[in-house]
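Issue 218. Parser rejects a valid record. Input:
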Amino acid sequence: MIAELGKGKYLLLTTFRKDGTPVPTPVWVTPGENDDVIYAWSGRDTGKVKRIRRSGEVEVGPCDVRGNPKGPSVKAHARLLDDDASDAVRARITKKYGVMGWMTVFGSKLRRGRTGSVGIAITSAP
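Output the parser choked on:
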């Protein structure tokens, strides 16, 4: 299931607040090197990154650009990547999303610098 989600255009990444409240966010997604992992990308100072840092428990599912679910969600585990691995995720996003991906990643680098965003590796829940 995780590998199929990496092929879609948008992923509904749901993180959870300390009190268990779900916070769904649509993100761009790209497949990993194998079927066990997919990647997303976000600003380092966003709420979803803070929640992933605290607890890697997430749910993921297909969605549209506005975050409207387009299928079932599954439990998964997310972890934040180091700067070099995050560079690789940005390159994957740029390749998959073409000109829009390049403009978004480039704009983020201008605003935040190289380390202002972080790659997120998502795997099936253990």
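Fixed in the parser; the record now loads. Residues 2-124 form a domain with the Pnp Oxidase; Chain A fold (CATH 2.30.110.10).
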